[in-house]
Amino acid sequence: MSERTRRSTADVSDAVCEAVREELAELGYQGLTMVGVARRAGTSRRALYLRWSNKDQMIYDSIAPFVPTAVSFTSSGDLRTDLIEYLPRVSQFEGTLGRAARSVVAESYRDPDSLAELRERLMTASLSGLRQLLLEAIARGEANPSALDPEILMVISAVSFHQLCLGSEPISEETAARFVDRVLLSIVQSETYARDGVSEAI
Predict the structure, then answer these.
(1) Which residue ranges hold the DNA-binding region (predicted)?
(2) Which domain holds residue 188?
(3) Are residues 55 and 75 in the same domain?
(4) Other Cβ atoms closer than 10 A to 13
(5) What is the DSSP annotation of 97-166?
(6) CA distances (Å), 7 to each of 35, 112, 184, in order?
(7) C-alpha separations of 152 from 29, 36, 114, 144, 190 in Å
(8) CB neighbours (10 Å) of residue 37?
(9) Per-residue pLDDT tens for 137-148?
(10) pLDDT digits (tens, 9 = 90+) for 83-107
């Protein structure tokens, strides 16, 4: 009996998911194929299609379990310090997973219908920590309540996702500090963006 035959379903599934991440990291989304994944995982293409009908579903199952449902964040008590710490943390996917995640995020923006569920999972985790630190800043009087507007939250999180798509490393503390000082503080502390009913967004 061959090694391939002896492997359990769980072992094959783990091997496939690892192969998907490695293929994404090396070849990108466009270069990933069912044939390539099967070859790297030591299984057959038929076995892949028995479980996944397309490569997007296979990619989701290979990456989503490693994405937290929320980015935990403990406030320092100072909004500027919190934002500077937040930006690098969200973009900090390292190694093979980091390269695979960058490929996925980049593809999801190139083609909005592709991998939308995985992109949404990444965004949800990102926004949960950001929303919490802004809520605490609002309570301290450091930020305007309009900082919780969806458009403003998206602007802030987009910085990290831009780096996740294009950068080989997480955002540096120096880069985060410049962006916070030149852009973000003026947005979240300004009354220009205030509107009635903002409490509904909290």
Answers:
(1) 33-52
(2) 68-201
(3) no
(4) 17
(5) HHHHHHHHHHHHHHSTTTTHHHHHHHHHHHHHHHHHHHHHHHHHTSS-GGGGSHHHHHHHHHHHHHHHHH
(6) 19, 37, 52
(7) 29, 41, 25, 11, 11
(8) 27
(9) 999 999 999 999
(10) 998 887 766 566 787 778 778 877 8
